[in-house]
Specification:
The structure is a homotetramer of 371-residue chains.
Chain A (H helix, E strand, L loop, with lengths): L3 E8 L3 H16 L4 E9 L3 H11 L3 E3 L2 H6 L5 E4 L3 H13 L3 E4 L7 H14 L3 E3 L7 H12 L5 E9 L21 H17 L2 E9 L4 E3 L7 E3 L5 E8 L4 E7 L8 E8 L3 E5 L5 E6 L6 E6 L20 H16 L9 H20 L3 E2 L1
Parallel strand pairs in A: 1-2, 1-4, 2-3, 4-5, 5-6, 7-12
Antiparallel strand pairs in A: 7-13, 8-11, 8-17, 9-10, 11-12, 13-14, 14-15, 15-16
Helix pairs in contact in A: 1-8, 4-5, 5-9, 7-9
C-alpha cells in the first residue's frame, strides 16, 4: 500500500473514545481516502486504564499522560474525548505542537475559553473539527441542499428540539453533566439542535429562553442517598431570531420521558417544508404541493444521498449512529490531508457555545439577548 | 315522542353555521338526550341568504334580522356563527332574553369585550358554551383522565402547536382573519392550542412571545392586484409558565406549508408521556416504561373512550371533524336541560382570549407578561 | 322547499340501522340533492322494538312486520339492515313493489340466492345498492383515478387485507357471524377487501385459498359455558389472479389481535405505487420516483378529493366512518332520482359473494378455482 | 495482547465482500471476544482485482485463486461471497481442509447441492454459518423471546413479505439474479422472509405459491438493446402452513416500486401481536391489551436488547445495516472458538432453500406441496 499513514492519538476511552476508535478502524474500508489512519497512542487517566483500552481498541501503545501523547511525533491527529474541563489544555498543547485537533463537543466549559482555543488554532493554522456528528447524516446534508436550492421557496419558520430521557429519573445522580461549568440540558443536547439550526439556516441573531430545573436535587453519586441541589437546567424552551430574518423556537430537554433521540426540526418555506427527527434518522420528510397530491414525502436514505453509497450500494439499508462518526472521521482525515474542511471547526463550535450562553443569560435577565 | 323540543335559532350559515345545523340534526339519533333540538329560525345578513340556507339546512323559518331571531319565543338556544364583530351584540341580546348562548370562537374581538359578555351571562345565570370543538375529542378527554389519574406521574413539560397552511400563500387576501381586532394566527388558531393547554394542564401564569408577520402585504380582496399592509401575525412562538409550575412553549402558524391540521402537543411526566396531533385525531400516544418494552403506545379510539360509543360500537372506525361538533352540541343540550356544563363557557373563552392578548403584549414590550 | 320528498323505509334498527337513519338525516344538509329523504317507516322484529327505535331515530311510524313497510306507498326506498337470512325475502318483495332497494352486505347467505335477487332486480329495472361503505372514501376514489390515469404505470401487483380483532377471544360466542350460511371471516370482512380489489383493479379470474378455524369451539351464546364447534373460518389467506393479468394475495382475519380496522392494500405499478389502510382512512400513500426525492407521499384528504368538500371546506379536518355512510346515501338518492349509479349494485355484490365462495371451494378442494 | 488471532480468508470483494471485511475489522472493538480476527488472504477472480481489494480492505495478501486461499494454513475461517455457483466447490474444499465456513446466502444454486454441502460439513464436524444477517437484529431476537415466553399467547397467524424495487424497471438487465439456477425474487429475497419465519415460528410443513414474471424479457446486459426472455419470478405470493399448526402467507417481490427494504411481518397471538419492518429496523411493534389503553407499542432498540449495548450505551441511537453484519461476525467468531452457534448453519440454510423450491414446485404443479 502506497498510502500515507496518518497517526492517531486518542485521549479518553469511554463511550465516545470507543466510538472514535471504531470509526478510525472502519473508515479506510469504506472511504477512498489519500491516507490511512494508524492507531498509534491511546491516553487515559491512568496507565492501567489506557493499557486495557489500547489492547481492546487496537492502539500501538498506551499512556497515562496525555501530554506524552501530544508530543509523540508519530501522532498527527489528536482526538479528544476526555472530560470537558480537559479539552482546553489538551487542545492548546496539540495546537502548539502543530497537530490537527479533533475534539468532542462541547468545545469547552465556557464560551470564553472556547474563543481562546479558536483563536489559538486559527493563529497556528491547524485543522480543527468538533464532534457534532448528527449533522454528518446524509439526510441533513440533503436538507441543506434542498434549502439552498430554493426548492422549498423562502424559509419562513423553524421549530426544533432535542429531547431525551436520560435524566428524567429524579434519582439520576450528579455527574459532569450537572456541573454548572458546561452542564445542563441546553449545553449538553440543546447544543446539537443549535448547531444543526446554524448548519441549515445560518447564524442566530437574538434569543430569549426559559430554563427550568425540574428536579431540584439529585443524589451526589450513583446510588447515594445524599442529595445535592441542581444548578443547571433539565429543560429549556427558547425563542430564536436568525440573521436571515426567520423566527422560531427550540426546546432542549433531558428529562423528556418517552424520548430517546428526538433531535428533530421542521423548517417551513413559502413553497414547501422539511421535517426530520433523529428517531427516524434514515428519512427526511419533504412537502411539496402538487394540487390534489399534496403531502409530506418520506424520502428514504440511499445512494442518491452522499456519502450513503460508501456504506451500501442499495437504498433502504439504513445507516446507524456509529456510521455518522465514520463520516465525521472521513471528513476529518480529508481536511487533514488538505481537502476541504466542512466543519464544524473550533470557531463554529465557539459560536454554538456562545448561543447557549446567550440563552442562559436571557433567562437570568428575563429579556431578549442579542448575539 | 314525549321528549321536550328545544328550539334552535342559528345566526350565520357559512362553514360553521352549516356545521352547527348538521350537528343539531344528527345529535338526537346518536345521543340519548332529555330533549330534541328543533331547527326553528335561521338568521343571516339578508332575507334572501337566510331563506336559501334555511331551506337547505331544514329550519322552519328564516330572517334577515338576527334580533328578530333572538326575540322569537320559539327559540331556546341562540347559536352564533356570525362574524366576530357581531358576537357581542347578539350575545348580549340573547342573554337579556334569558336564552342559552352557544357562540363560535373567538368569543369576541377583544378580551375586554369578552369579559363584559362573560359578566352579563353570569349575572343573568344563562348557560353559555363556546365552540372549541377540538377538545370534544374522546382522545383529549382520555388524555386529561390520564393526567389527572397520575398515570404519567407529575407533569414536567409541555410543547404545543397549531399549524396550518391556509395563509401560507403570500397572495391569500385580507379578510376578517387579518383584521387586527381579533385576527392573526395566534388569535385564530393559537387560541385552540391555548384552550387545549388550559383544558389539560390548567391556567397559564406568564407568557413571553414573538409574533412574526411573514407576508408584509396581502391583496385587499381575493384576486385583487392592490395590496395593503398586514398588521397581524402569521406565526407566533411563545414561552409559557403554568400556574402549576410547569413550563413549555407553543407555536401558532397559519403559514405552515405542509400542515393542514397540526394541532398537536406533547406532555411529559415523571412516569410517562402523552403525545397527540389532530392530524391523527383518532389516536393518542401514551408512553409508559416497562423495561425492555418501553415505547409510545398508539391508543386507537374506541368504545372504551366515551362518547365514541355513541357513534359506533366497534373500535377503529374513526370519528371525523363533524362528529366533534355533534359531541359539542350534545353537551350544550345537556347543559341547557340542567345537566353539567363541561364548558368552555364564556368565562373560559375570555381567559383564552386574555392569554392571547398577553402574548401579543409580551411581544410588543419584549418582556414577560404575567396574567 | 320545492324539493321532492323521498320516502325511506328502514328494516332493522341495530348498529347498521342506526347508521342508515343518521345518514339519511344528515345527507340533505351536506349534499345538494334533487330530493330530500323523509324517514317514513321503521320495521323491526316486534312492534315494541320498532316503536322505540322509530322514536329515537325520528321515523314517522313503526311496524313489527316488514311486509307492511314494503307495501306502504309512502316508502320509495327500502333500506335493509335485517339479519342476512331476511335480505332475500325483503328484497324480492321490494323489487316486486318497484322500490329502490338498499341492502347491507352480504347481499345474501349464498351466491346462488344473491344471483336470484340480482336477476329479479334487473328484470324489474329497479335501482339497487349494497352497503360496501369503505369504498365511498374519497381517498379510495382518488386511488382509482390515479390507477386509471396511468399515473403509477401499469399495475403489477396487489396485496390486500381486512383484519380486525372482534373474534380474537376464544370466548367470543356463536352468532349469525359463525353461521355457515354466509358467516366466517372471509364472508364477513374478506368481502370488503374483495370488493375493494374489484373496485380498484376489476374482476378476479382465479383463486386459491386456505381457510383456518383458529378457535375450534365457541360458547353457544354470550357468557355460556356450553360450547359448540365452529364451522367457519377465523382467518383466510388467498392467492388471486385478476382478469387484467395481475397477481396478488389477500388475508381476511377477524381474530387479528392488535387490529381494529386494517382494511389495507398496496398496489404496485411500473411507475409508482399506492398504499392505504382504513386505520388511517384520511390519507393515501402515493409513491412516485423523482431521483433523490423518491418516497411515499402521504396525501391528506381535502376538498381536492370529492366529495370531501361537502363535509368541510378545509383540508386535514378528517372524515369519519359515519360520513362514509352519508356519501353512500347521497349516491343512493342520486341514483334513485335518475342519476348515475356508482354501485356496488346487486350484481356487483353477487360477484363479490361468488368470489368468496370460490375461495372456500378452493380450500375444500385444495386446488385453484376459476371464476 | 494475549488473545488468539483468527485468520480470515475472504473469497469475493463485491458489496458483500466489503461488508464482511468491514465487519471483521470492526468487531473486536465492539465485542469482547476470546480471539481477534486477522485479515490474512483475499481471493477474487483475478490477481489484479484481488490485489486492489486487499489493499483497500487491509488484507495481508491477495490471490486470484481461491484454492490457494483455502489451503493456506494461516486461514482459519473461509468467508465466501463469491458468485452462487462457486459456493459449493469452495465450501467443499474448505470443509475438507477442516476450516470454519462462513457463506453468503443462498447456500447454493439448488437445494440438492445445498444438502450435499450440509452433509459434508456435518460429517467433518466443522462450524458453518450462512449470512442471513437481517435476523441478527436485536429487535428480531426480542421478537423471538416474546413469542417463546408466551407474552402474546398462542400464535394464531403469520403474514410476511420481502419487497424491494431493484428489478422494478423493465430495463434492469439480466444477471446472476435472473439465472434459473438459484435466481428469481423468491430465491433472492423471499429466502429472507422464509428464513425469518422459520427463526420465529419454526419449520414450514406445506406451501402453495403463485410465481409471476412481471417483465417477460430483460436486456441481456446493462444498457444493451438486445433482450432475452426471463425464466424466473419477479413476484411470488405463497400460502404457508407451519408444523406448529399456524397458517399464513408471504410475498417476495423485487419489482415492488416504492419499497426498498420491506422485509416485514406481523405475527398474531391470542393475547397480543408483533409487527416489524426492516424499513424501521430499530423498532418492534408489540400489541398488548390493557382495556382502554390498547394499541401497538413502538419499542425502540436500546441496551435492553442485546447486543445493541455493544454498539452504544444509550437507547435510540440506531443500529445500521452494516452493524447487523458485525453481530453476525461476532457470533461466527464465538462459534469458531467453541461457543454456541446460533446459526443459521448450512443445515438451516438448506431447509430454507428446500422451502423455496417447494413453493416453485407448487406453482408449477398448481397444488399444495408438503415438505
Amino acid at each position: 500500500m502506497s498510502k500515507t499513514d496518518i497517526g492517531i492519538g486518542l485521549v479518553g476511552s469511554g463511550f465516545m473514545g470507543r466510538c472514535h476508535a471504531n470509526a478510525f478502524r472502519s473508515v479506510s474500508g469504506l472511504f477512498d481516502l489519500p491516507g490511512t489512519p494508524a492507531l498509534r497512542v491511546l491516553a487515559d487517566a491512568t496507565q492501567d486504564i489506557a493499557d486495557r483500552a489500547a489492547g481492546q481498541l487496537g492502539f500501538d501503545r498506551a499512556t497515562g499522560d496525555w501530554s506524552d501523547l501530544v508530543s509523540d511525533p508519530a501522532v498527527d491527529i489528536v482526538a479528544i474525548t476526555a472530560p470537558n474541563v480537559l479539552h482546553a489544555p489538551i487542545a492548546h498543547a496539540a495546537i502548539k505542537a502543530g497537530k490537527t485537533v479533533y475534539c468532542e463537543k462541547p468545545l469547552s466549559t465556557t464560551a470564553a475559553i472556547a474563543l481562546e482555543m479558536t483563536q489559538a488554532a486559527e493563529a497556528a493554522g491547524v485543522v480543527t473539527m468538533v464532534g457534532f456528528n448528527f449533522q454528518r447524516n446524509p439526510m441533513i446534508r440533503l436538507a441543506r441542499d434542498i434549502i439552498e436550492s430554493g426548492e422549498i421557496g423562502e424559509v419562513t419558520g423553524f421549530r426544533g428540539r432535542h429531547a431525551e430521557n436520560y435524566m428524567a429519573d429524579p434519582d439520576a445522580p450528579h455527574s459532569f453533566r450537572t456541573d454548572p461549568a458546561g452542564g445542563g440540558a441546553l449545553a449538553d443536547i440543546g447544543s446539537h439542535i443549535i448547531s444543526m439550526a446554524r448548519y441549515l439556516l445560518g447564524p442566530i441573531a437574538e434569543v430569549q429562553g426559559d430554563c427550568t430545573t425540574i428536579h431540584p436535587t439529585r443524589p451526589i453519586r450513583p446510588g447515594s442517598s445524599d442529595r445535592a441541589p441542581v444548578d443547571v437546567d433539565d429543560m429549556t424552551h427558547a425563542l430564536l431570531r436568525f440573521d436571515r430574518g426567520v423566527s422560531g423556537s427550540i426546546e432542549a430537554n433531558w428529562a423528556a420521558t418517552g424520548r430517546t433521540m428526538d433531535l428533530s426540526w421542521e423548517i417551513t418555506g413559502t413553497k414547501g417544508a422539511l421535517s426530520f427527527s433523529q428517531e427516524n434518522m434514515n428519512e427526511l420528510l419533504l412537502h411539496s404541493g402538487q394540487p390534489g397530491r399534496s403531502g409530506y414525502t418520506r424520502i428514504e436514505a440511499g445512494p442518491a444521498h452522499p456519502p450513503y453509497g460508501n456504506f451500501c450500494p442499495a437504498p433502504g439499508h439504513h445507516l446507524g449512529f456509529n456510521d455518522l462518526k465514520v463520516i465525521e472521521v472521513a471528513q476529518l482525515l480529508s481536511a487533514h490531508m488538505g481537502g476541504e474542511n466542512p466543519g464544524p471547526d473550533f470557531r463554529e463550535a465557539y459560536e454554538v457555545q456562545r448561543t447557549v450562553e446567550a440563552v442562559q443569560t436571557s433567562h437570568a435577565e428575563r429579556s431578549w439577548v442579542t448575539l
